[in-house]
């Protein structure tokens, strides 16, 4: 759906933890390495360490807080009755590019939302993410990972030299000159084909029919793909059907994976957290999937509220040690979810980019005074099974010419709705966040 730009005036609990007190040396490698914060972050290569500066840690911590605030709105207001998955990182990059082409109050609003000091800070952060966290780990034996940025520009316009250089150097974006005036439908199809290719076929039709027309001048898009094998895979022969309890009180039979091995679990007042590490490559990055399971079968909304309301929540709640498990089951599931981001962003205070004005640092043309963000489309996919996880996400912003308008065994039975996320543990970067309400409703 196309959105017109309009002018607006903006005026056993942890603490009494049931968690086993294992020695830290038995904890996952990412915890031991995460203690080292002094060395400058550098490009990952086989045999090298990845270590985060305090500045990068702070940036990622801020990004995580922003991510959780978006997740809360999606889970509780935009899609309260749906399975949800989205990539806050993908959306962050699109918004950072828009900020880089903005000035004045619009820029101030974007920087405030992204909790960043300046566009230089945002661009540096994006550059480090692209070159380090999001570099492919498959050659080194880790997860397969790819991230790509693309920009489509109306052929009668040219980008400002500094903006073009920024897209090339910090965002590694491919630039394509296109004819929006006469071939808008063809351009939309081209963007959708690019997204589908970059996400290994998992995200299709990112731009819906009618979202691109002759008033479109720019499209910023990105695509994220992740495929990781569990460090300890589940035995498929042990997968069996059990009841999964829905929020409405009913239940259904779904396939559950199980294991008798020790797991990274932490128990708190009202919820538990499970961490499942992916196989690690020689570059030493450590990706994990985390499951946040409320004790109460209908406790997901309250947990989502809690997760988003506490700054630094993840840093204090993730499991660091393996514990013996009693009953242990998590469901297999597939989720595909898409949404239009403006309604969420506006509720969180990002209004001016959609109302026009101040996007003047993008193009070398007086028309730059009349550019605005018409929409931001986002789609994500995740599949969790005995082998591991495959996930993808894509975001696209369309810019148009506006009109004048504990110590004992711990049970972890995920047989009711829960939250999940995929995270790189050394830097703390969150790639995907979601909620599962019904494992059979993909």
Automatic annotation (TrEMBL):
- What InterPro entries has UniProt attached to this entry? Serpin_CS, Serpin_dom, Serpin_fam, Serpin_sf, Serpin_sf_1, Serpin_sf_2
Q: Where is the Serpin domain?
A: 68-439
Q: What one GO molecular function would you report for this record?
A: serine-type endopeptidase inhibitor activity
In its UniProt entry, what is this protein called? Serpin domain-containing protein
Name a GO CC annotation attached to this entry: extracellular space
Q: What is the lineage of its organism?
A: Eukaryota, Viridiplantae, Streptophyta, Embryophyta, Tracheophyta
**Family to which the UniProt record says this protein belongs:** Belongs to the serpin family.
Q: Which CDD domains match?
A: serpinP_plants
Annotated stretches, region: Disordered: 1-23
Residue spans of biased composition, Basic and acidic residues class: 11-21
Q: Which organism is it from?
A: Canavalia gladiata
By its UniProt entry, which PROSITE patterns does this protein fall under? SERPIN
């Amino acid at each position: 759906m196309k959105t017109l730009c309009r002018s607006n005036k903006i005026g056993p609990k942890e603490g009494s933890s049931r968690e086993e007190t294992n020695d830290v040396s038995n904890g996952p490698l990412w915890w031991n390495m995460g203690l080292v914060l002094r060395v400058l972050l550098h490009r990952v290569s086989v045999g090298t360490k990845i270590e985060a500066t305090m500045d990068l840690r702070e940036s990622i911590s801020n990004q995580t807080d922003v991510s959780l605030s978006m997740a809360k709105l999606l889970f509780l207001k935009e899609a309260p009755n749906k399975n949800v998955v989205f990539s806050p990182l993908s959306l962050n990059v699109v918004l950072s590019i828009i900020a880089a082409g903005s000035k004045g109050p619009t820029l101030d609003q974007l920087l405030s939302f992204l909790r960043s000091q300046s566009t230089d800070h945002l661009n540096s952060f994006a550059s480090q993410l692209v070159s380090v966290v999001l570099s492919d780990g498959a050659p080194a034996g880790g997860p397969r990972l790819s991230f790509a940025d693309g920009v489509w520009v109306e052929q009668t316009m040219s980008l400002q030299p500094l903006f073009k250089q920024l897209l090339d150097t910090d965002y590694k974006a491919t630039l394509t000159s296109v004819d929006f005036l006469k071939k808008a439908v063809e351009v939309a199809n081209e963007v959708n084909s690019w997204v589908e290719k970059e996400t290994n076929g998992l995200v299709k039709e990112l731009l819906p029919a009618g979202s691109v027309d002759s008033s479109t001048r720019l499209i910023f898009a990105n695509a994220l793909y992740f495929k990781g094998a569990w460090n300890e895979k589940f035995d498929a022969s042990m997968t069996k059907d059990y009841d999964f309890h829905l929020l409405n009180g009913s239940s259904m039979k779904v396939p559950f994976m199980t294991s008798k091995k020790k797991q990274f679990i932490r128990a708190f007042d009202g919820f538990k957290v499970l961490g499942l590490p992916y196989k690690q490559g020689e570059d030493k990055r450590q990706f994990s999937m985390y499951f946040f399971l409320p004790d109460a079968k209908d406790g997901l909304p309250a947990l989502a509220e809690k997760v988003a309301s506490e700054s630094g929540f993840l840093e204090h709640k993730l499991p660091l040690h393996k514990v013996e498990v009693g009953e242990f089951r998590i469901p297999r599931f597939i989720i595909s979810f898409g949404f239009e981001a403006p309604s969420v962003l506006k509720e969180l205070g990002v209004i001016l980019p959609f109302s026009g004005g101040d996007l003047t640092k993008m193009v070398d043309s007086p028309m730059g005074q009349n550019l605005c963000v018409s929409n931001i489309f986002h789609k994500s996919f995740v599949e969790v099974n005995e082998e591991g996880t495959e996930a993808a996400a894509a975001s696209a912003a369309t810019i148009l010419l506006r009109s004048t308008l504990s110590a004992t065994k711990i049970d972890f039975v995920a047989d009711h709705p829960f939250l999940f996320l995929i995270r790189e543990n050394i830097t703390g970067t969150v790639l995907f966040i979601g909620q599962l309400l019904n494992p059979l409703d993909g």
